Amino acid sequence: MIVIVGAGLSGLVCALELAKAGAPFVLLEQNARVGGRIGSFYEDGYTFDLGFQVVLDNYPAVRAYLDVSALGPRYFDPGALMWDAGQMFTFRRPKTWTDFSSALQTTAGRGLNWGDKIRLGIIGAGLLARNDETLLNEAFEVSTKRYLEGFSDAAFERFFRPFFGGVLLDNELETSATLFRYYFKKFLTGQTFLPRFGLQAIPDQLARRLPAGALRLETEVTAVVLEQGKATAVRLASGDEIELDQLVLTCPERVTAKLIGAQVREAHPAAVVYFRAGQSIYPEKLLVLQTGRTKIVRNLVQITNVAPEYAPPDVHLISATVLRPRVTPADVAAAEQEINRIFALKPGTLRHVRTLEIPYAVPVQPPGSVFTQKFANPFPNVWRCGDQISHASFQGAMESGAVTAKTILDRS
């Protein structure tokens, strides 16, 4: 019997691969829903995703494991709106690397130099010449910020910090340059979308493919039973025990630490503040970025421009990402004021409807981090999975689950 603890994306894909091979398993999830940090809450006709995340359609695992058309994908236009020094600039993603520097010049308005353009060309050529695995295995022992040091302040502050500060949930861009390079290529070559009924539709779709009885929700694992250096069972909050031959831990790191004593890394927090409006505040299907590091709102989007299903008819839903673990009423008011200032809205146009906080949004991934599956098993039949040992993304989660299942099957 194989026991999987945690029904996030990696646990679900691991379970699907085991089911395909006919291996006996059970998937245990302490919450009443699947998905982990990928999920949505539904209230009064609104869809509130657990943090602002988008799906990249060029992730191989997305194509392999998801029926994208059944999700009702609602696509963003490629690019972003950039609010800088009291002006709004539109950055449209270029179709080729040849015109990327001119697109960025339009975004930044002024100030880019020829050195920026040359560096962009060099980076672009290098990224396009490498496949994903090569990019992730190239260990850049520098941070993203250090990697971008050759660019002008205008390029850094008007594009790289606001965009990738939101992508990496790291406003200082201390994340490994390896991960930056991987994401940069993905965003420039793929399209981003949201499922019409929220991110929860993704894990729900995976869960529906599991054999009957294989998934047990609201089932908390409180301990791992160890005998002679191996895991022999898991103990549930109910007091019951489930005997096992192999154990997969794809739960949050703090839970893994509790169960087997693994180290818990620091994490980047995030929160999303949702506002509603009776009028559209802008028409484009684009994310809005703010330059500078001191803003409350790192990025925002009027989600109903992309997915009208996220709100009741004639209402618009705005999602504002805040890079802090806790959001106070003063923070909500400050976020509202920032949005009002950007779009010249009258006070009272926006109404706060919900705040969702994610204290452990993604683990800190500094230079030297490993972004392809590397097992470091504390016990011979215990496997950690997900962003505990891979990169924090849809691709990293699902691929990790598949690799873990294959490894267990190969050794059985």
Pick out its properties.
single chain; 412 residues; alpha/beta; FAD/NAD(P)-binding domain; Polyamine Oxidase, Chain A, domain 2; seven-stranded mixed β-sheet; 13 helices; 32% helix; globular
Protein architecture, described:
The chain folds into three domains: 2-38 and 200-266 and 365-411, FAD/NAD(P)-binding domain (3-Layer(bba) Sandwich), CATH 3.50.50.60; 46-75 and 193-197 and 267-363, Polyamine Oxidase, Chain A, domain 2, CATH 3.90.660; 94-189. 32% of the residues lie in helices and 25% in strands. It is built from 13 helices and 20 strands. It has helices spanning 9-21, 60-65, 100-108, 114-128, 132-137, 144-147, 153-167, 177-189, 201-207, 253-260, 303-306, 329-343, 394-411; strands at 2-5, 25-28, 40-43, 46-49, 55-56, 73-75, 79-84, 87-92, 192-195, 215-216, 221-227, 230-236, 241-243, 246-249, 267-277, 287-290, 299-302, 316-322, 350-363, 382-384. The strands form five sheets. Strands 8-7-16-17-18-15-19 form a seven-stranded mixed β-sheet. A hairpin with a 2-residue loop joins strand 11 and strand 12.
Topology overview:
Elements (H helix, E strand, L loop, with lengths): L1 E4 L3 H13 L3 E4 L11 E4 L2 E4 L5 E2 L3 H6 L7 E3 L3 E6 L2 E6 L7 H9 L5 H15 L3 H6 L6 H4 L5 H15 L9 H13 L2 E4 L5 H7 L7 E2 L4 E7 L2 E7 L4 E3 L2 E4 L3 H8 L6 E11 L9 E4 L8 E4 H4 L9 E7 L6 H15 L6 E14 L18 E3 L9 H18 L1
Parallel strand pairs: 1-2, 1-14, 2-10, 7-16, 14-20
Antiparallel strand pairs: 3-4, 5-9, 6-9, 7-8, 11-12, 12-13, 15-18, 15-19, 16-17, 17-18
Helix pairs in contact: 1-9, 1-13
